[in-house]
Amino acid sequence: MTGLGARLRAATDARGPLCVGIDPHAALLRTWGLPDTAAGAREFALAVVEAAAPRVGIIKPQAAFFERFGSAGIAVLEEVILAARSAGLLVIADAKRGDIGSTAEGYAAAWLASGAPLESDALTVAPYLGLGALDPLIRIAQESGNGVFALASTSNPEGVALQSARSTDGTTVAATIAREAAERNAAAAEAGEWGDVGVVIGATRSLAVSGIATACLAATPILAPGFGAQGAQLGDIAAIFGEAAATVIPSVSRSVLEAGRAGLAAAIDAHRAEVVA
Ligand SMILES: O=C(O)c1cc(=O)[nH]c(=O)n1[C@@H]1O[C@H](COP(=O)(O)O)[C@@H](O)[C@H]1O
């Protein structure tokens, strides 16, 4: 079984690292001329999958924009995940789950176990109950060939105070999460591979402020939102992430989706070109 890290690496080698977000905001559905309903979100999301499949290797559906329609929205999300995986895309489900270990197992059963209703290649997880509390979820993910991205330094300004807070040994919360993720990728690092425990580091955040030592992240995939609508530039990945740039998966949602259905393919191509420029 090929694990998440190896699949992510193969996808980025083949198609570049860009990840396209699927965020059916009410305003975007309006721009697209679609109703703000589960059926509208379905049409929107499947159109994004279709445009993304020949152009990028990774997509990231945002669960909230489907959950807002209740069970009908969850059914659409299931269908979209399946359609994307069937089209050869890797799916990072962005649901930011996290809880004590026994409950984390429930999340794994929903999102990461083989044959789970919402099985995705990876799930974003919130590690603020301790990354260790997510080990049962990570174990189930890895047994199924899947993985996680743990929030370390998020793209939003409200996260800075909490995530750059320092413990008595001077380490920031963000750096602790990044180190703990990297520790879980030690075997992959030794084999020169990418691990299955990624981190989220917003491209809008300074690594100096968050205190993250990039050297430890050589085998740790980094999901990097914050480009486009939130202000960071795709051409600046090397400047922002330094030696960690090699494992960065930049993610864009609104700046691509705002192009509307007719302009979507061209917008994805343009963003992709910016990354490799
Ligand atoms: O985990 C995420 O994807 C995420 C983490 C983070 O720190 N910041 C962040 O914006 N995101 C998500 O990334 C997407 C960003 O969307 P745009 O700003 O429209 O590109 C949204 O789906 C956010 O929920």
Question: What order do the helices and strands come in, and which of them pair?
Answer:
Layout: H1 4-15, E1 19-22, H2 26-31, H3 38-52, E2 58-61, H4 64-67, H5 71-86, E3 90-97, H6 101-111, E4 122-125, H7 135-143, E5 147-153, H8 160-163, H9 173-184, H10 186-190, E6 197-201, H11 207-210, E7 222-224, H12 237-241, E8 248-252, H13 254-257, H14 260-276
Parallel strand pairs: 1-2, 1-8, 2-3, 3-4, 4-5, 5-6, 6-7, 7-8
Helix pairs in contact: 3-5, 3-14, 6-7
Molecular structure report:
- This protein has 277 residues and is of the alpha/beta class.
- Helices cover 45% and strands 14% of the residues.
- The chain binds orotidine-5'-monophosphate.
- Orotidine-5'-monophosphate (OMP) binds next to β8 and α13.
Q: State the total count of DSSP E strands.
A: 8
- CATH secondary-structure class: Alpha Beta
Shape descriptor reads: globular
> Which structural class should the secondary elements be placed in?
alpha/beta
How many helices does DSSP assign?
A: 14
How many distinct folded domains? 1
Strand fraction: 5-15%
Radius of gyration: 17 Å
The portion of residues assigned to helices is: 40-55%
Largest beta sheet: what is the strand line-up? Answer: 1-2-3-4-5-6-7-8
According to CATH, the fold-level topology is TIM Barrel
The kinds of small molecule bound in this structure are: orotidine-5'-monophosphate
User: How far do the termini sit from each other?
Assistant: 34 Å
Order of helices and strands: HEHHEHHEHEHEHHHEHEHEHH
User: How confident overall, as mean pLDDT?
Assistant: 97
CATH-defined architecture: Alpha-Beta Barrel
Low-confidence stretches: none
Pathway: Pyrimidine metabolism; UMP biosynthesis via de novo pathway; UMP from orotate: step 2/2
Domain Orotidine 5'-phosphate decarboxylase: 17-268
Pfam families: OMPdecase (PF00215)
Protein name: Orotidine-5'-phosphate decarboxylase
